[in-house]
Amino acid sequence: MASEFWGERWANSTSEIAKKYMEVAARKKSLVCLAADRNTMAGLFDLIDAVGPHVAALKTHVDLVDDWTPENWAKFCSAANDADLLIFEDRKFADIGKISRSQMAGIYEPRKWADLVTAHLISGPDIVDGLQAGWSDVGRVGGVLLLAQMSSRGNLLNPDYTDQVVAKGREHSGVFGFIGNGSRPEELSELRAKVGKEKMIWTPGVNLAVGDGEMGQRYGDPREAVLAGSDCIIVGSGIHRADDPASAAKAYAEASWNALIERES
Ligand code: 5BU
């Protein structure tokens, strides 16, 4: 079923997790990853209950939850799995391979619950092997999203850096895809041309209210991001700060799904 909607992305994909994501997205008719940036466990549970049916993945910052405990987190992850959501820890790893592997353990132990994590390639390509080794240490598989662009104003990921990240990441089976700048469709189209047809591009910096956000964040339109080559719009405050998060999530789901159909037809 997913193949009919995802076209060349499905046909070219060699990643088990990318296929899982495309299937979930097709079941829910949503290319939305909710940035679940709430700082209490209760707030996070409420979000899953409200928006679970309308989003395909949940992006977490595990270290910003004030009342985090391993037990509560395990329950939260199991609720996310029950709601058919991929779990994506936006940890932005950046250290050498060996340390990144160790950081997949530690107190939070993302190797046990995260399907996806973000990483900078600033320290070199061994970071991807380190993160993959972290998952294999507990018999799991996961995917790395490399930061090829960022959504924030004045970031230092210039086009030359982006090119190098893409050139190295494209060839690595442990790389699920790339983070692109959802606020600038023209930059995204260029990124898609460099990435090619196979790997995913996921984009933060997306909001139905286009423009500048808080503290240097910038927002672009969901439909335009998908048409420019994004495979998943990462939306935070547009959903979790809405008066009615469920209706907001539904609106983002429809915008993203309709854009995928438009893009592939
Ligand atoms: P917002 O509320 O939709 O602005 O939340 C955006 C989320 O995406 C937030 O969790 C950031 O950490 C994350 N993000 C981002 O905004 N821009 C980036 O370039 C990257 C991640 Br990478």
What are the main properties of this structure?
eight-stranded parallel barrel, alpha/beta, binds 5-bromo-uridine-5'-monophosphate, 10 strands, two-stranded antiparallel ribbon
Report on this model:
With 265 residues, the chain is of the alpha/beta class. The chain has a single domain (2-264), classed as TIM Barrel (Alpha-Beta Barrel). The protein has twelve helices and ten strands. It has helices spanning 2-12, 16-28, 41-51, 70-82, 97-103, 110-113, 126-137, 159-170, 185-195, 222-227, 237-240, 245-264, and strands spanning 32-35, 57-60, 86-93, 116-119, 143-147, 175-179, 200-203, 211-212, 218-219, 232-235. The protein has an eight-stranded parallel beta barrel, surrounded by five helices. The chain has a two-stranded antiparallel sheet with strand order 8-9. Helix 8 links the parallel strand 5 and strand 6 (175-179). It is globular, with a radius of gyration of 17 Å. The chain starts with a helix and ends with a helix. The site of 5-bromo-uridine-5'-monophosphate has 18 residues, from strand 10 and helix 11.
Question: What topology does this entry show?
Answer:
Layout: H1 2-12, H2 16-28, E1 32-35, H3 41-51, E2 57-60, H4 70-82, E3 86-93, H5 97-103, H6 110-113, E4 116-119, H7 126-137, E5 143-147, H8 159-170, E6 175-179, H9 185-195, E7 200-203, E8 211-212, E9 218-219, H10 222-227, E10 232-235, H11 237-240, H12 245-264
Helix pairs in contact: 1-2, 3-4, 5-7
